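Submission sheet (multi-component)
Chains listed below:
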Amino acid sequence: MRTKNQKIRDFVLSAISVIVLIALWCAVSTSKPDFFPTPMATIERLVKLFEKPIMKVSIWGHIFASLKRVLFAIGASIIIGVGLGLIMGWNKKVRAAIYPIIMTLRPIPPIAWIPLIILLFGVGEFPKVLLVFIGSVFPILLNTISAVSMVDDMYLKVGKVYKANTWQTLHHIVFPASMPTILAGIKIAISSGWMVVVAAEMLASKSGLGFLITRGRDSYDVALIMVAMILIGIVGAALSIVFSFIERRLCGWMSS
Amino acid sequence: MASKDIKVQVNHLTKKFGDLLVLDDISFNINKGEFVCIVGPTGCGKTTFLNLLTRLIEPTSGEILIDGKPADPHVHNISFVFQEPSAFPWLTAQQNIEYGLKIKKKSSEEIKSQVDKIIGLLGLEKFRNAYPHEMSVSMEQRVVIGRAFALNPDLLLMDEPYGQMDIKMRYYLEDEVIRLWKATGSTVLFITHNLEEAVYLAERVLILSNKPAKIKAEKKVDLPRPRSVSDDKFVEIRKDITDMIKWW
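Outcome: structure written.
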């Protein structure tokens, strides 16, 4: 546990680094404010964004649009990644059959899928969610596979002694024992999903934080680009904080 | 002893791994509700022996009967306490003790009354909701032992469960296991290489030889309980057993 003094010290240190960053930003931006807006101009743009919607969508609407896509995709990734991961981690034959495909699909960046997905599914909501899904399913799937295959043999033996059937073993032993690693996979998936949604929205969208960046570029509104980028960072960090909280609630039994 | 009182019959049990003979023609009986200790040198094949009894592996020849029928984990309740504490870290003390009963799909009233009884016997009321990482190793092992007794097993196998405990804790836990055994009427087979522990706990001690393991000798321990390790009779029995296995 951190003591109170350490907490104050850490807070002061992070405050200093933020102040230094803003000072640097000021120093760089004052020479060419048209290309690179000052912090003040960026804040003004943000305030204006609250007052004047873009494409009839408020700033909250844009944030929500991006979040919604990510949450749908992560939901699907959890269902498919954890489900398939449990089967693949548990059954060596299934793993042998499917693993090569997974290993080949995994390195293809989600952006490389965009042309194919647009050709197949157009530019609606589904293709964006699908892209985020592609960007987020692999960490969940791979973490689940390795967690399941590394469940401590001792726990499996206890299950065998009590004659738990396969379903009981998976439900009562393998799944809870794998939980910390699965949650770590979901955490990676959320951050990579959040990156992919912005990329997807930059290519074809009328809402979302990625769209705001494209809109900023098209209308030469650099401050809007800055605002959107900062919001992407803040929302991404918030997602990760919220998830860490959920993780602690679900895995309160872990020693650290 | 009338045959109806025999709970477990082990007949000519032999196990080979390839050409390696690990268990050589082991035969013995355990009576219903009896507490039997098996002592044997480390590496004498006792893990193999236990795995055979829990039917984790199949014997090369010979048979194990429980209540006169071939031991079948789906018919008989066999419980096991491993040497290392094996409480599930994601379950609380109470949930760990409930585990076997839930797997066997007992009714919730039965689970509750049985778990309350075990927790009472263990004196763990205050730690019902504690997770294993919040417990000492010995407390975790007590929870595991509670989990094993909670099932009222036909046969409870214990594989050096106190091997890692210091001597003071051992005395305490040994009394506790006797308390649980008496309260549940379970039949217990307890493996140890600590002779004093064997004499303290058992009604009968079986002495295994070096690999390939055979039953080398058997010693009845008919001392009243609670036993005292410094009692003359106790020391004498311990000395007898030591003499039987001196060539270790």
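Remark: The longest helix of chain A spans residues 166-203.
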